[in-house]
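<context>
A single protein, sequence plus fold
<entry> Chain with its tokenised backbone below
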Amino acid sequence: MRKYKLPLLLGLLLAGIITVWLLPSMLRSLPTRYAMRLPGPLQALALPADPTPILPTVAAPVAAADLLGNTSATVTPPASPTPLAVAEAYSTPTLAATLQPTATATPPPTATPWPVPAAARMTGFTHVYQEWNNCGPATLVMALTYFGRVHSQRDTAAVLRPNPEDRNVTPQELAGFVNTQDGLRGVARINGDLDLLKRLLANEIPVIIEIGFDPPGEYQWLGWYGHYLLPVAYDDATQQVWVYDSWLGTSEVPQTNADPNGRVLAYADLEAYWAQFNRSYIVLYEPEQEALVNELLGATLDDAAMWQASLARAQADAARDPANAFYWFNLGATYNALGDYEKAATAFDQALAIGLPWRMLWYQFGPYEAYQHAGRYDDVVLLAETTLTDRPFFEESYYYLGLAQSGLGNTEGARANLQKAQELNPNFTPAQKALAELPPES
């Protein structure tokens, strides 16, 4: 028997060496939602490294200060130099044509000066804790409970993010889901403010907001994320709102507490974090409430008026605090909507030069759009490849990467990345449109 011990020991040693050598790559192949459940030492091996705390700077900002004084209402968009145009169904709406005055133009509605009470609270919501990366579908489920609608967040996620590794659902997608429900309507807008939030809550109109989020306590290491919240109350006396949070509940330990009153968020914190998503919000209502909602939202329902107000506010924000990268990002997103992609690109250059969180392009895609329209394909490739490193889960990044590669003459690469975008989310129609516009395979 002894003559077999040495080969056995050598075999076990070799197996151990191979296991240790392969273990990191094996663990790194696990989806993040599973890696997060591993013990600490294994989790450190399994989770992707975060070598880039901010997105790379793609160009030195040029005359960015010049953007702060231009409030012209008429902007003529440049012709797109790209062989594959950014799909109209996905790009930020270009409003240059809308902004041209016409003899028959109908003025946008004016918001009724509602008396806003000093405090108000909505009831009738059921709190729901989110599953992995599911704050959008889960928060939507919470909002729908107000109307007596019972949904599983897995069912909403199957429509909104069919790939479980997808990190993002856009406000437009959330509003689109609401509009598929009989007897309900949803509208996604930007450039909200605390006064509007109060008017909606005081009139019992549910509203979801999208914010930036720095995880608290022991979860700080995760870094900045985008997050959805459901406001349910406010009080001017205490200068705070209460929100239903699908991740934190009402404590700093995720998924440990769901007080029916909600989690407290100070007015100042609301403003700081909401501005990181250009104060984006989704309003949900029943058809019979449409007249009320129109009065409450007023001119914000008109795209041209909304983006003009966003331009003035983004310029004022960036002038007041020019070191805030998010304000420059908002300015870039607004110039995209106005069809001035050169100015948008300059604003995004400034935001990147100041420093943006490395997760920024998980949620908002303005730099891709601006650089694509400006013919800066290499910059699109750099940002998309940085975003997809270790986390190849974003159909939007694959989509813009494919467009940029087409612009660089790499049709084969463009096709592969557009197909990847379609595979990740079969409901992502811009990738289907772009694939159809590629030259046929030889």
Notes: Residues 64-102+340-437 form a domain with the Serine Threonine Protein Phosphatase 5, Tetratricopeptide repeat fold (CATH 1.25.40.10).
